[in-house]
Amino acid sequence: MHFDWTCGALAEGLACYRNEEFFLAHEHWEGVWLEAEGPQKTFLQSLIQVAAAFHHLQRGNPAGAISLLSRALHRLDRFPNEYCGVAVAPLRESIRGWLQALEADLPRPRPTYPRIP
Known about the structure:
The protein is mainly alpha-helical. Helix content is 66%, strand content 3%. Strands 1-2 form a two-stranded antiparallel sheet. The longest helix is centred in the middle third of the chain and has 21 residues, at 38-58. The relative contact order is 0.13.
């Protein structure tokens, strides 16, 4: 399966993610995830977890965000610095920054949301 971030559900989810509509991003990507296989399925699952984490954070659940970001990072650590059109290295770095801020319970401002792709 080829990931095309310029059209279809991936593009719609990306637009939602960039607009900080994380639940909607998750919903769009989940349909693609259900059809994906192998490493691409795992990779997309990690992006869905990132979106879900920030949805949890928006709803005042930092513990849920920490859990999902940790799981996403664990999956993303298995991928090269770029995968399926996504710059994975800066994404991992941003997630680590968020985890440090959330675990230390630092007051806002926190790092900006990780960019995808």
